[in-house]
Write a structure and sequence with these properties.
about 575 residues; alpha+beta; about 20% strand
Length: about 575
């Protein structure tokens, strides 16, 4: 209760009666004044009011209490008064200690401010000059630091983090994209205005000698740079605009997406993007080793591959055109001249889905192979996944990042489970995985994402799910000879993610493909060039498409594919 409150409440009392009233049922410590018309609710409030009066007046007051259920006020008992006075004394002592502590902190803060101001004024007089007697510094990147131990070097980078140890030592962890390097600044190097105001993300150039860290100490790479000179290249803001205030670990996902350009400076986001680069390189190495040629198909097209509902349409010089859903059809045209081909390019789906595995723009690894059987296709998909993982796993730096992001990950070595669509329907019903209304899944309907993932996670192994019914698959997938109800089609399902690959054999008979167009109600005219592949020397062939972001989500155990690309594009998100 403040002195202003006490003065106000005291003025409401009847001076003639010298009584403070407490009604445990109807009173209020917050709004009461201690009068019979506005009593307090507790004896503590009454004692507090009296205890803050001048001592000569306190003895004249008494406390009257009306307990719950009582019909009239009665003078407070001695024990209750003693208890209330003790509580008041304890509260007063606590308030005094809090006030003393606040006063002490204020004094310390003021002293610190004065000291900081003094140091800042002194820092303006400190000018760093390179020692020309030292050996010339060689410019290196952080990743080359180990090879230059014992040598004087200069390194450019961003201040990833820093800490001050006393007046004369500062540890700065530098980041240049190739790695992290701890720099040790001592004495005058710590006394400049730049040192006192150093902020995260400031770009600097540091000169000094690379040394192994002392025994028992740790630093990135096992070494540190003992600085003899440094300078600021560009200063990053501090205070309210500091990067730590723009992005933080627990921020709302929408904020992190809006500030994605800053988020990717973080260790985790950067590691995902670096692994992505190595994975892309591994896919190319896999296909190159297998004798495939890489091609670059157009992304502006006038045909559909996966259905018209997910096409991004735009005006192409007065004609309707679309962003490609898949490069498959164009890859097929390359088979007669180049043999097996692949592409790593962007595909686009105008799919208004908010799930954690959907993007409107994603990186599509697609391949087409001539003169193969369906079993060849399945074997090829399994070998590709295992080989790409083995390649990145064999790189120490990449493996370390994978283990950092997905502890416990082990490359798949066992054969992938091979399961037909019809067997999956049986599995779902036997394991009581049903529709939301409780009805069982039946042959012919598409298996939604949730039950598909439930099955995959329960089995706990990669699954090559095959032989889907024709009506739920694309027009170009051929029916099997033994069962015309189903197609030579496959989805590769991974635990934790679900589908990462979709593939099939392709209809290679001209008349059969024309009939497929008719069933889908598609005009064959825009596809004349695709039909010509069946006219001028066709062959059995097949292919597949892999979503690189989904592959990474599985490999790195990321919750969403949005974490696995540079700037994700999905419904309502086209920035930055």
């Amino acid at each position: 209760m403040s002195m202003q409150d006490i003065t106000s409440k005291t003025s409401q009392l009847s001076v003639g009666e010298h009584v403070v009233y407490v009604d445990e049922t109807k009173g209020s410590d917050a709004t009461g004044h201690g009068t019979v018309d506005a009593p307090f609710a507790t004896a503590l409030a009454a004692v507090t009011l009296i205890g803050n009066m001048p001592e000569e007046k306190q003895e004249a007051f008494k406390v009257m209490v009306q307990k719950a259920g009582a019909e009239a006020y009665a003078e407070i008992t001695a024990s209750a008064l003693k208890k209330a006075r003790k509580a008041h004394k304890d509260a007063a002592n606590k308030a005094r200690r809090v006030a003393e502590q606040a006063e002490k902190q204020q004094a310390q803060g003021e002293a610190k401010r004065i000291e900081e101001q003094r140091r800042l004024e002194e820092s303006a007089k400190v000018e760093l000059i390179q020692d020309t007697a030292l050996p010339a510094a060689k410019k290196i990147r952080v990743q080359d630091a180990e090879a230059h131990r014992g040598q004087r070097v200069k390194v450019f980078g961003w201040v990833h983090r820093h800490r001050v140890q006393g007046r004369d030592m500062m540890f700065v962890v530098l980041r240049d994209g190739t790695g992290f390097l701890q720099c040790v600044l001592t004495d005058r190097l710590c006394h400049t205005r730049d040192a006192l105001g150093l902020t995260a993300e400031t770009t600097v150039c540091v000169y000094g000698v690379i040394n192994a860290v002392p025994e028992g100490k740790t630093a990135p790479g096992g070494h540190e740079l003992a600085a003899d000179y440094w300078e600021v290249v560009s200063r990053a803001p501090g205070g309210d605009d500091a990067i730590s205030n723009r992005v933080s670990e627990g921020a709302d996902p929408s904020i992190l997406l809006q500030q994605r350009h800053l988020v990717i400076r973080g260790e985790r986001a950067a590691a995902v993007l670096k692994v992505r680069a190595h994975v892309m390189r591994a896919f190319r190495a896999h296909f190159d080793a297998a004798g495939y040629f890489e091609v670059t198909p157009p992304c502006m097209v006038q045909t559909q591959v996966e259905g018209g509902s997910t096409l991004f349409e735009f005006d192409y010089y007065g004609e309707p055109a679309y962003l490609t859903q898949s490069s498959q059809l164009y890859l097929e045209t390359c088979l007669p001249s180049m043999g097996a081909v692949y592409t790593l390019a962007e595909s686009y789906r105008a799919e208004k889905s908010h799930t954690r595995r959907h993007l409107s723009e994603y990186t599509h690894c697609e391949a087409e192979i001539p003169f193969i059987s369906f079993d060849d296709l399945l074997d090829g998909i399994e070998h590709m996944v295992k080989d790409v993982v083995a390649r990145v796993w064999a790189e120490p730096e990449t493996r370390a990042m994978i283990e950092q992001l997905n502890p416990g990950f082990e490359p798949p070595v066992e054969p992938f489970v091979r399961m037909r669509y019809e067997e999956a329907i049986v599995w779902l019903n036997e394991h009581n995985v049903r529709h939301e209304d409780g009805s069982p899944y039946v042959f012919g309907e598409d298996i939604p994402e949730a039950p598909e993932r439930a099955m995959t996670d329960a089995i706990g192994k990669p699954i090559l799910l095959t032989h889907f019914p024709g009506p739920i698959k694309a027009f170009y997938m051929p029916a099997t000879k033994e069962d015309p109800r189903v197609t030579e089609s496959v989805d590769l399902l991974m635990p934790g993610v679900g589908e990462i690959v979709g593939g099939s054999m392709r209809i290679w008979d001209h008349d059969e493909l024309v009939a497929a167009y008719a069933r889908e109600g598609l005009d064959t005219a825009p596809y004349y060039w695709y039909l010509d592949q069946r006219k001028y020397g066709s062959c059995p062939h097949g292919g597949f498409g892999l979503g690189v972001e989904r592959f990474l989500a599985w490999l790195l155990n990321r919750f969403s594919v949005r974490e696995c690309c540079l700037y994700p594009r999905f419904v309502d998100r086209c920035q930055p």
